[in-house]
Design a protein that fits this description.
CATH superfamily of the largest domain: Zn peptidases
CATH class of the largest domain: Alpha Beta
CATH architecture of the largest domain: 3-Layer(aba) Sandwich
Strand content: 25-35%
Number of strands: 19
Structural class: alpha+beta
CATH topology of the largest domain: Aminopeptidase
Shape: globular
Distance between the termini: 49 Å
Largest sheet: 15 strands, mixed
Order of helices and strands: EEEEHEHHEEEHEHEHEEEEEEEEEH
Radius of gyration: 21 Å
Number of helices: 7
Helix content: 10-25%
């Protein structure tokens, strides 16, 4: 039995049954001394569902607190996944950033650190950095595969998709892409030359573990459709890994899109953005994307902003008010597995 695994490298502590068949509820703890509790803790619920022999799938959600689709889906899966029909082990971390989730904020109100941008974390760092360290040291090394559920949160709205990046290692890249396609969302999007670093997915890939994320809608709301895409996606991944029998209804083929840096439209300054195009529309570079208004200057005409490239609008900013460099929309371009993997 493995329980009370602390790890000598930091203060985070994992207390959950890992190896005994069945469903087990425990937690990952990080100490947090504050005004209301001198010996307080930040508690991340961890659920382990163990069946017969097989691989380990680590599923996480809520790294950004205002992204609830995955938090709902994994919380329900923790109650419904049947260990008797499972080959292997599923580790569920439904709410990886409890303070941010309770506050409906992207970053933690405790220290304002972005959990999804600080892996592998720091054992001697701020509380959020210690959470990242705990996930990295105590959970990630157990995994043969990782799915990290995200959405657009309060500021962005995405076409629901599997979302990820491909590492330089060709064999690992193929496994990561196969995982994204197996998830079965309507779209699969691959970031080329991603700007974001220190994500859980990049940390997993750095350890040689196939990993993917999602972007499941957003806009500050949750829909039955996006929660169902998350739930069905995890089931599809389990079937892909041979951990459960094939699902009764095979998933539709995802539309595969590449995300290029040149496909991002950013605000040139402060104002209110009035868009022309909706999610899913096909656009051409040079078309009008919308207008940036300065409502305090009635004498000033709105500034027209142009679509930066050809493609499909896969993401849009939800709040009209924006500041310089805020992403107003970004595009995807149809691609193929061979193109992404560099196969002639």
């Amino acid at each position: 039995m493995k329980r009370g695994v602390s790890g000598a490298g930091g203060p985070a502590r994992l207390e959950v049954e890992l190896d005994r068949p069945g469903r087990h509820v425990g937690a990952l703890f990080v100490p947090h001394s504050h005004d209301r509790s001198a010996y307080g803790r930040i508690t991340l619920p961890v659920i382990v569902v163990k069946g017969g022999d097989g691989p380990t799938l680590l599923c996480t959600a809520g790294l950004h607190g205002d992204e609830y689709e995955g938090q709902f889906a994994l919380s329900r899966l923790a109650r419904t996944l049947d260990p008797d029909r499972l080959r292997g082990r599923v580790i569920l971390l439904p709410v990886a950033n409890p303070a941010a989730s309770a506050a409906a904020k992207r970053t933690s109100p405790i220290d304002r650190v972005n959990l999804a941008r600080c892996f592998p974390g720091r054992p001697d760092g701020l509380p959020t950095e210690q959470i990242a360290d705990g996930i990295f040291r105590l959970l990630l090394h157990l995994a043969d595969c990782v799915v990290d559920l995200h959405s657009g949160g309060g500021t962005l709205d995405y076409l629901p998709c599997a979302f990820g990046r491909l590492p330089a290692d060709s064999a690992l890249a193929r496994r990561a892409l196969d995982l994204m396609l197996a998830f079965g969302a309507p779209h699969a999007m691959v970031m080329r030359h991603p700007e974001a670093s220190a994500t859980l997915v990049s940390a997993a890939l750095g350890q040689g573990i196939p990993a993917m994320a999602t972007e499941l809608g957003g806009g500050g709301c949750v829909t039955p459709r996006t929660v169902e895409i998350a739930r069905a996606g995890i089931e599809n991944v389990l079937a892909h890994l041979g951990m459960i029998d094939a699902v009764a209804t095979p998933c539709a083929k995802a539309r595969l899109l590449a995300i290029e840096p040149r496909g991002f439209l950013r605000a040139p300054g402060r104002g209110a953005f009035e868009p022309v195009h909706a999610l899913g529309e096909t656009v051409r570079g040079g078309e009008t994307a919308g207008w940036l208004w300065d409502f305090e200057r009635a004498d000033r005409a709105p500034e027209p902003l142009l679509i930066p490239d050809d493609g499909v609008v896969v993401c849009r900013r939800v709040p009209p008010m924006c500041s310089v460099a805020d992403v107003l929309l970004h595009l995807g371009r149809d691609t193929t597995p061979a193109d992404l993997l560099g196969v002639a």
